[in-house]
Design goal:
Layout (H helix, E strand, L loop, with lengths): L1 H6 L11 E6 L21 E5 L1 H7 L44 E5 L19 H4 L4 E8 L4 E2 L12 E7 L15 H6 L3 H14 L6 E5 L2 H4 L14 H14 L3 E6 L4 H6 L2 H22 L5 E5 L17 H15 L10
Parallel strand pairs: 2-6, 3-4, 3-9, 6-7, 7-8, 8-9
Antiparallel strand pairs: 1-2, 1-4, 4-5
Helix pairs in contact: 2-5, 9-10
């Protein structure tokens, strides 16, 4: 399935900078001691191609320009009262959200420390996180340089889904909606939405479709209000997220979002404890701001690409990755109303 998915686009350069990942559900090959929570469903396996979109642009795809509407199409329907809402998330402050099923996944960084012990001798040390996630994303193959980050299970391809992960700040979404950096658009002359349209047309022409689009836009970048090189160009990530989610919905795809905070500056400065704390606090701040902005992804992925946090455990304290994941999951469940998973979407 993954080879077919990539090859069907007929661009030999597509895999040159791909980062292939797999997401493991609670009943995966690595699931010794993995307890499924009472309301959780086994997650599907997924093959995610990071930078496939920029590479497709560089490969010479000529996208048709689009002129999308950024309207919210009226008010968001009212949902139920969020259980446990606090004064900081009062309904007078936050837009109402209609309850819906959504997923939560995690992805500890493989460059921090080996992740295999999480499924072995330390499997009991992140019980709350395990029982409240839909999948665990592992880094499997990085194509440049060729390197296996972690072993991909043989049965991972049975329920494979394919999605695109974009480094969102590096793109201008459209001419009227710039990114904080926009470096890929400057390099290619193509806007992200144009490339998405081109990829969608190419896959549909081959009888295929992507299952989701996942946005990588850490809190540091989400909160930006202006383009770095041209401050006169205003950045509104919440509006872009909603527009992209609507684009996905119209094409029967899900909108996924990585929620985290970039800690590379603290790593470079040698401020380990500060970086650990900032990842935790920044991730929670991001979730709160998404709620205030009325951004409601179909999947929240709590993921670290970084060397900080420098530890995966413990779950209960210390600003480790699992500590941040536990608190993030609790906050998501508090702020975002979830429809009964037995109900149809």
């Amino acid at each position: 399935m993954p080879a077919v998915a990539a090859g069907s686009l007929e661009h030999s350069n597509l895999l040159k900078l791909c980062l292939v990942e797999a997401c493991l559900g609670p009943h995966s090959i690595f699931s010794q001691g993995f307890q499924q929570g009472p309301a959780r469903k086994p997650g599907a396996f997924l093959l995610c191609m990071w930078l496939a979109v920029p590479l497709l642009a560089l490969a010479g795809v000529a996208p048709k320009l689009t002129n999308p509407s950024f309207s919210d199409n009226g008010k968001i329907p009212h949902g139920r009262q969020v259980a446990g809402a606090t004064a900081s998330t009062a309904k007078t402050q936050d837009p109402p959200l209609k309850p819906k099923p959504y997923k939560i996944g995690i992805a500890p960084s493989h460059i921090t420390a080996p992740t295999a012990p999480l499924f072995g001798s330390h499997v009991g040390e992140w019980a709350e996180v395990r029982e409240n996630i839909d999948f665990y994303k592992i880094y499997s193959l990085q194509a440049v340089p060729p390197k296996w980050a972690s072993q991909l299970p043989v049965d991972a391809f049975a329920d494979t889904q394919v999605g695109l992960i974009t480094n969102f700040p590096n793109w201008h979404y459209t001419a009227d909606h710039p990114g904080m950096l926009g470096s890929w658009t400057k390099r290619t002359g193509v806007h992200y939405l144009d490339v998405l349209e081109a990829v969608h047309r190419a896959t549909r022409a081959k009888g295929m479709a992507f299952d989701f689009v996942e946005v990588d836009c850490p809190w540091n970048y989400y909160r930006a209000t202006a383009n770095r090189d041209d401050p006169s160009r205003r950045v509104d990530n919440a509006t872009k997220f909603k527009a992209l989610q609507q684009w996905c919905r119209e094409r029967d795809m899900e909108f996924w979002l990585v929620v985290n905070r970039d800690t590379n500056p603290q790593k470079v400065a040698g401020k380990v404890q500060m970086g650990n704390r900032l990842f935790h606090d920044g991730t929670l701040t991001y979730i709160r701001q998404l709620r205030r902005d009325g951004v409601f992804p179909d999947c929240f992925t709590i993921q670290s690409w970084y060397k900080l946090p420098d530890k995966h455990l413990p779950e209960g304290s210390g600003y480790s990755f699992m500590h941040a994941a536990r608190d993030a999951i609790r906050l998501i469940r508090e702020l975002f109303p979830e429809k009964d998973r037995t109900d149809a979407r």
